[in-house]
Write a structure and sequence with these properties.
The complex is a heterodimer of chains A (336) and B (467).
Chain A: H1 14-39, H2 54-61, E1 69-71, H3 77-82, H4 87-94, H5 128-142, E2 148-153, H6 160-171, E3 176-182, E4 185-186, E5 189-190, H7 191-194, E6 211-215, H8 219-234, E7 240-245, H9 263-273, H10 275-285, H11 291-314
Helix pairs in contact in A: 1-2, 1-10, 1-11, 2-8, 4-11, 5-6
Chain B: E1 3-6, E2 16-22, E3 29-30, E4 35-40, E5 45-49, E6 54-59, E7 65-69, E8 73-78, E9 91-92, H1 106-116, E10 142-146, H2 147-161, E11 165-169, H3 185-189, E12 194-196, H4 201-213, E13 217-221, H5 232-240, H6 242-245, E14 254-259, H7 275-279, E15 285-287, H8 292-304, E16 308-313, H9 315-318, E17 321-325, E18 338-341, E19 346-350, H10 354-367, E20 372-376, E21 379-381, H11 385-395, E22 398-401, H12 410-422, E23 431-433, H13 444-450, H14 454-464
Parallel strand pairs in B: 1-9, 11-12, 11-13, 13-14, 14-16, 15-16, 19-20, 19-22, 22-23
Antiparallel strand pairs in B: 1-8, 2-4, 2-7, 3-6, 4-5, 6-8, 10-17, 15-21, 18-20
Classes of the chains: A alpha/beta (336), B alpha/beta (467).
EC number (chain A): 1.2.4.1
GO biological process, one term (chain A): pyruvate decarboxylation to acetyl-CoA
Protein name (chain A): Pyruvate dehydrogenase E1 component subunit alpha
């Protein structure tokens, strides 16, 4: 693959770089495996892969602290792996098994982890934006200094409730980082054809929310911008918008014939801008890792992913009694 | 071991496709993500990418082949160090031979589905066992209170009890409530806990749900339920469904409340009863009180409930006074109807403002010697079927009363349940008195006709008692 010009020396340690490499590779290999299982009929329904966008979640997770929250839309596998959720549980949810994060009742688009402060996984485009602001409102109410990362796409950025939320988040100075993952296509509609002004990050200006565009194929640039945004929120200065310019290599979902863009366009991004290749080069050029070291990481990731696929196939389908559970939270109050 | 590459399913419904074109040939090396072939289905042509890296050892299905079944081996991939001679000892897709679609044709699929599906039935309906316990101890001191005061008191008491309870909505704070329901709350609890929102129902309903997931107990006031249609996606898709979709991890303790149904002379967009709409949705609890005591006791239960509660009030009832027990902490449980007036000849079931017509009709019927039992459902989900069924089994006749539209109404649902569980007890068909099947008109005379009425209830009772 052609080398990408690295404009500046990375301001991170070798260990951090290796961690980003590993985390991004985990997302990519996991998604490739998910695509494969889908092809075999083991995963049903919709399945939206994150391949190409890995630097976004890995760069931002590098800025998160214990207790910070994250919420996203339906292209959510990468967010879950990046925040430390167990690949076994994610894959088993994709196959609709009892070992999945939602016991097989949510599927690809609806997974959650209280433990990792991951609040979904939402199938309605744009709906997670006020939900994320609400999580931030709860943190502000409690005064705990936590920040919520609210991810959505360039497509969701045209939903009305996003702007309702911008207004209230700015008005009440909610500690929320709005991360617009602009992968340039809302399903099959390019940004040019759907969005009146190209720079989505400027849309917060009307509400007094600072925003900036970030190279989403560069994990270090994402991390740097994320640190600034998080500091702004934690200080109590209100929301911040990051428009992260990224690219998805695969179709919108598995059943996407991808006639809205050329094969050359995709290949060019893969060859010239790939986020994993970028960190790989930084590691090798900086002599932070040898080819053998990286091969060992590749092997380690492959094993993790294969194990998750095995788990997802072997885990049983949910017991039929699960049909009737979790509709309501049991009321444990004494006077209930 | 060489790996078989299988014909992929490109959509959940795909069973076979055409291998339109190979983009690699035998001897080519591929990396994961490389496009290997084009597959054509009846819907689209899709590119098929490599998952594993290796060398194409053999192509098993030539390009142009039609009707290739999903999961048929189409090529063999060799790993480093393997040669074409190793082919023969293949494993499918890297050990993934347990694919479920490869062993049966399309038709068998349907057959096995029919056989294997376990039936998960609703629990069987037992004999009705109504809970007739009193709502408060006999001899409790009572005081007169309007529904408005009762709702206000319920919120204030719960906000005093629990720091996590807060209220948000349009004009709830400085204006003291569009209908003065939140009067005085800002003074007592401050702007942090009594939050004026912009006019932005969709957005603040979503923020409320997020805040509930974040550990708070929001009360979200809609100025009227008509405006909540802007927010219905957040109420249903986010608040009601997420506990189920998360396998029980993300309950949502939130109350959505405000005036519901027709007020007076505000026409179609401002006059609609949402009782049946929300009662349709698993994951929600739905409450529609009539009296002040019920409004107070049920709202306190709603605020404490760990689930999303739809609390449907009525503008016309806000100013009406009722007896309310003087107790430090009094709640009414969900799923318990109230027999507002005992009787023997006919059961009249209603809720909310419908109770006005039901009770007035019962008074007039009593004058004519007909003894009507009037049941106030109070909560619509969970619904107290047992109290209704036990009453119908006693009176053998039933009339339901509500202001909502007639199609798929609460009355329709009750009629079906009564037919199913008390068919042999019925001496007449159940009649549903409802609002008319028209948008609410503005003109005073037409508006009156569009609602149900005491007269209609009496006529219905006369019909089911064959008088």
């Amino acid at each position: 693959m052609a080398a990408r010009k690295t404009t500046k020396k990375p301001n991170v340690s070798a260990d951090e770089l290796k961690k980003y490499y590993r985390d991004m590779l985990l997302v990519r290999r996991f998604e490739e495996k998910a695509g494969q299982l889908y092809g075999m009929g083991l995963i049903g329904g919709f399945c939206h892969l994150y391949i190409g966008q890995e630097a976004v979640v890995v760069g931002l997770e590098a800025t998160a602290e214990e207790g910070d929250k994250r919420i996203t839309t339906y292209r959510d596998h990468g967010h879950m792996l990046a925040c430390g959720m167990d690949p076994d549980g994610v894959m088993a949810e994709l196959t609709g098994r009892e070992g999945g994060y939602s016991k097989g009742k949510g599927g690809s688009m609806h997974m959650f982890s209280r433990e990792k402060d991951f609040y979904g996984g939402h199938g309605i485009v744009g709906a997670n934006v006020p939900l994320g602001a609400g999580l931030a409102l709860a943190d502000q109410y409690k005064g705990n200094g936590r920040v919520t990362f609210t991810y959505f796409g360039d497509g969701a950025a045209n939903q009305g409730q996003v702007y309702e939320t911008f207004n209230m988040a700015a008005l009440w100075k909610l500690p929320v980082v709005f991360v617009i993952e602009n992968n340039q296509y809302a399903m099959g509609t390019s940004q040019k054809r759907s969005t009146s002004t190209p720079d989505i990050y400027t849309r917060g200006a009307a509400f007094g929310i600072p925003g900036e565009a970030v190279d989403g194929m560069d994990v270090l640039a994402v991390k740097e911008a994320g640190e600034k945004a998080v500091a702004h929120c934690r200080k109590g200065d209100g929301p911040y918008i990051l428009e992260v310019k990224t690219y998805r290599y695969r179709g919108h979902s598995m059943s996407d014939p991808a006639k809205y863009r050329t094969r050359e366009e995709v290949q060019k991004m893969r060859d010239e801008k790939d986020c994993i290749e970028h960190v790989r080069e930084l590691l090798l050029e900086g002599k932070h890792a040898s080819e053998e070291d990286l091969k060992a990481i590749d092997k380690e990731i492959k094993d993790v992913v294969n194990k998750s696929a095995e788990f997802a196939k072997e885990s049983a389908e949910p017991d039929v009694s699960e049909l009737w559970t979790d509709i309501y939270v049991e009321d444990t109050r004494e006077d209930a | 071991m060489p790996t078989e590459i299988l014909m992929p399913a490109l959509s959940p419904t795909m069973e076979e496709g055409t291998l339109a074109k190979w983009l690699v040939k035998e001897g080519d090396s591929v990396n994961s993500g490389d496009i290997m072939a084009e597959i054509e289905t009846d819907k689209a042509t899709m590119e098929f990418e490599a998952v594993d890296e290796g060398t194409i050892g053999k192509i098993l299905i030539e390009e142009g082949t039609e009707g290739v079944k999903v999961n048929t081996p189409i090529a063999v991939l060799l790993e480093e160090g393997e040669s074409a001679d190793d082919i023969g000892e293949t494993s499918s897709g890297g050990g993934e031979s347990s694919a479920k679609k490869d062993d049966s044709g399309g038709d068998d699929d349907d057959e096995s589905r029919g056989k294997a599906e376990p039936v998960a039935a609703s629990p069987a309906a037992p004999v009705p066992q109504p809970d007739a316990s009193p709502d408060w101890p006999e001899g409790t001191e009572m005081t007169k209170m309007t529904v408005r005061e009762a709702i206000n008191a319920a919120m204030a008491e719960e906000m005093r009890n629990d720091e996590d309870v807060f209220i948000m909505g349009e004009e709830v704070a400085e204006y003291q409530g569009a209908y003065k329901i939140t009067q005085g709350l800002l003074d007592e609890f401050g702007a942090k806990r009594v939050i004026d929102t912009p006019i932005t129902e969709h957005g603040f309903a979503g923020i409320g749900v997020g805040a509930a997931w974040g550990g708070l107990k929001p009360i979200v006031e809609f100025m009227t339920w008509n405006f909540a249609m802007q927010a219905i996606d957040q109420i249903i898709n986010s608040a009601a469904k997420t506990n189920y979709m998360s396998g029980g991890q993300l309950g949502c303790s939130i109350v959505f409340r405000g005036p519901n149904g027709a007020a007076a002379r505000v026409a179609a967009q401002h006059s609609q009863d949402y009782a049946a709409w929300y009662s349709h949705v698993p994951g929600l609890k739905v409450v529609q009180p009539y009296s002040a005591a019920d409004a107070k006791g049920l709202l306190k239960s709603a605020i404490r409930d760990p689930n999303p509660v739809i609390f449907l009030e009525n503008e016309i009832l806000y100013g009406r006074s009722f007896e309310v027990p003087v107790l430090d902490d009094f709640t009414i449980p969900f799923g318990k109807a109230r027999i507002a007036r005992p009787g023997d000849d006919v059961t009249i079931v209603s809720f909310g403002i419908g109770m006005t017509y039901a009770l007035e009709a019962a008074d007039k019927l009593a004058e004519e010697g007909v003894s009507a039992e009037v049941i106030d459902l109070r909560t619509l989900r969970p619904l107290d079927y047992d109290t209704v069924l036990a009453s119908v089994m006693k009176t053998n006749r039933c009339v339901t009363v509500e202001e909502g539209f007639p199609v798929a109404s609460i009355g329709n649902h009750l009629s079906a349940v009564i037919m199913e569980r008390a068919f042999d007890y019925l001496d007449a068909p159940v009649i549903n008195c409802t609002g008319k099947d028209v948008p609410m008109p503005y003109a005073a005379n037409l508006e009156k006709l569009a609602l149900t009425s005491t007269k209609e209830v009496i006529e219905a009772v006369n019909k089911v008692t064959y008088r």
